[in-house]
Amino acid sequence: MNAREVVLGRVRRALADVPREETPDQVPVERTYLESHRPADATELLAENLADYRALVHRATAAELPALLARLLAERGAASVLVPAGLPAGWLAAVPESVRRVPDATADTAHRLDAVDSVVTGCAVAIAETGTLVLDGGPDQGRRRITLVPDHHVCVVRVPEQVVDSVPLGLRRLSPERPMTWISGPSATSDIELDRVEGVHGPRRLDVVLLGP
């Protein structure tokens, strides 16, 4: 007996007392799983998991944010930065005028976006248990493509209000009708030898700023 026969045998035994005419929607399923494991500090867990995914995590107050964003762009050598239409005006106030501001324009092609060095956005929600940032095309996030093509993404997360414990709690805040992008660390993939390559289908570097009171 091979593994396939063992598995199918277990399925048949489990279904032995189920009437053939019964359909799945006729039997209510009790969903008693936890929506959250209730971490002691969701923000700290988010920071830990983001770092585990090789994102670079920074912390700032509102007063410190402009200088921090200017430093992150300078460290990357950014000569241009893509700016969503609804990004708060003061966030880039400390960035030198020599750094070209590129507006999020519908006419932009992937080729033109690839010429932009960095992009700065906000986010819709951040999930602590998975270290995931979710963007939904809000005014401070722009279209999906602007965070998938440039090589450097700086994402600002307002804490604690945008941080949730788990995926189920995050889904409650999101609309399925919006264009969502789920980000867990910089874009990366590995081949069969587990050689990691970053920047294959998204930014090679992800800076996350936890914006606190």
Automatic annotation (TrEMBL):
Pfam assignment, any one: LUD_dom
Superkingdom: Bacteria
Domain LUD: 45-211
Gene3D superfamilies in alphabetical order: NagB/RpiA/CoA transferase-like
InterPro entries to which the protein is assigned, alphabetical: FTHF_cligase-like_sf, LUD_dom, NagB/RpiA_transferase-like
Protein name: LUD domain-containing protein
Biological classification of the source: Bacteria, Bacillati, Actinomycetota, Actinomycetes, Kitasatosporales
